[in-house]
Amino acid sequence: MKKSVILIFFIFSPEIILPIGTNSQGETFWDRIMKEESNFNLSKGIIYMQQENYSKASIEFSKAIDKNPSSTAYSLFGASLYWMGDVYGSIKEYEKAIEIDPENAIAWQLKGISMAKTGNIEEALKNFEKSISIDPKRADVNMNIGSIYFSKGYMSSAIEYIRKAIKIDPQNPLFYYQIGLVYFYLERYDDAEESFEKAISFYREYEEAMVWLGITKEKKGNMKEAIKIYKKAIEIKPYDFFARYKLALAIINSKSDEKIEKYIDKNFLLTPKNKFGGVSLSISYSAKEKNLEKDSKSDENDFSDKNISEIYKNLLRASPDEEINFSIDIISIEKMKIETVNETNLGKALSGNFNYPRKKYNSSNFFLPAQDQKSRKENIYKILKKIESDLSQNTDKNYRINFTMNTKKAEGESKTEDSNVAYYPRNIGNDMGLWIIGNNWISIVEDDMESIDKINENPQKNLLAGLGNLLIGESQNAINYFNKVGNIYPTFSKLGLAVSYTCAGEEGKAINLLEEVLEEDKKNKIAIENLKWLKTKEK
User: Fold this and answer.
1) 404 with 53: CB under 8 angstroms?
2) Distance between alpha carbon 427 and the CA centroid of its chain, in Å?
3) Which tops the pLDDT comparison, 464 or 350?
4) If we measure between CA atoms, which residue out of 528, 517, 472, 510 comes closest to residue 490?
5) DSSP summary character for residue 410
6) Which residues, in sequence order, are bridge partners of residue 399?
7) For residues 331 and 362, what is the distance between their CA atoms, to the nearest angstrom?
8) Which of 62, 305, 377, 418 is deepest in the core (most CB within 10 A)?
9) The pLDDT of residue 504
């Protein structure tokens, strides 16, 4: 088996408790008031984090820093930036937290997670080791270290540290899942099976553990049990295309008469949307960039600010029959200034010649009803032009923009399953507040492809070979296989080719194929939804 690696870490969750802080001797009554107000903002931010509203959480944590720049506040602010995709920004905040309190074990841990996210595994390990030296009883940090050793191929050390985590917290499903993966790669399938089952016993909806339990059952030759487990997995996460692919392949390999078509149809969606039938998007933009393509004729390039231009394009991706709720939070930060002072008074000079940058918060919420595309574009353009104008007047400030968008079908509209902006093979979110590096499941598909290549006269296996290659990003191989099954599976062939051509950047070919599908089946939901996005992107 090809050895791809996986790292699994805790990222900030309600279970990670950071000390709010206590009063110290010598502080003034005003200091105590500011600490209390800061703690209030921290509490609000934590609630927002639990609700996955990371933009609002970052605003509260930033306010808390203004009132009391504590190590805890910087740690939490860094965590909110991490979740919004600003990994390097999060590292800077963790470093500030550590500078204030070098014994903040959680700040060291979170910095390690961000370092691992950037690919700096060695630096991540140093941060985890520092965290564990401060607090040896942190189960999650022990697991982090075990995950690092797993990625480096040091399996005995990986098992040692994950077992330490289990000893400290023996009912944590994540730890059993992680050690199950280690056992699986060591081909200790009995131990892997026991570990995955243990993880599921503590968390019944642990879909990722179920998928790996199914794969382990297959390795042990128990195909019937594997099929049962895969079916349960796609009930929990309907848009896990990998699980659907494994289920269909297991049915074929078991020589069952059950039809696979009903399990793989969703695999041709250019990304499913949220539970409301719409898009959910949260992005953090930092620094100001000029739009270098401003002389282009397209509307989005009429914005001089590149960040605003990106927000415009994202808003236009929503379907006209969807309502849009979006918020734009702007943190304006005054640039540092050095003032000239009278040097005869050293005390005044030391206290007066440096002005700490002040922050200004501006949070705006907007609602756009379902409307025709022309009206939608005009309204979005008007809103964003006003925001850009306001920003351009504050040349003495730097800023950060937090953009959050949620769409849903308008009342009375049919809530069909929708597509988003790309092809995501595993749109499953993260169980247990996880962050995963590496695509270890890809090695499973690669192994499958090797065996399918030897038996390529089977039309069903050719269809799944097309899907498998699509899952792992091999668009040209997928095209070859989908072309082979055109006579047997004409609709699936065209849908698969359309997605493959989209991934290869040939969207014109994709549109033509989807239109051919609709000529034969006007109600084909997959073709309708994929065309909706592709044609929106064309405009």
Assistant:
1) yes
2) 9
3) 464
4) 517
5) P
6) 332
7) 7
8) 418
9) 75
CA 332 to chain centre: 26
- With a cut of 60, say whether residue 27 has pLDDT above it: yes
The pLDDT assigned to 279 comes to: 60
Cα separation, 178 vs 280, in Å, equals 29
- Contact yes or no for 477/462 (Cβ under 8 A): no
Q: What is the C-alpha separation between 174 and 164, in angstroms, rounded? A: 13
Q: What is the DSSP string of 388-408?
A: HHHHHT-TTEEEEEEEEEEEE
Of 103, 67, 109, 64, give the one whose Cα is nearest residue 90.
109
pLDDT grade for 304, boundaries at 50, 70 and 90: confident
Residue 108, classed as helix, strand or coil, is helix
pLDDT of 263 higher than 80: yes
Contacts of 64 (CB under 8 A, 6+ apart): 38, 39, 41, 42, 45, 70, 73, 76, 77
Exposure b/e, 347-386, CB count within 10 A at least 16 = b: eeeeeeeeeeeebeeeeeebebebbeeeebbebbbebbee
pLDDT score recorded for residue 449 = 86
Number of Cβ within 10 Å of residue 533's Cβ equals: 22
Burial pattern 190-217, b for ≥16 Cβ within 10 A else e, equals ebbbbbbebbbebbeebbbbbbbbbbbb
Please give the Cα distance from 355 to 334 (Å, whole number): 10
pLDDT at res. 428: 54
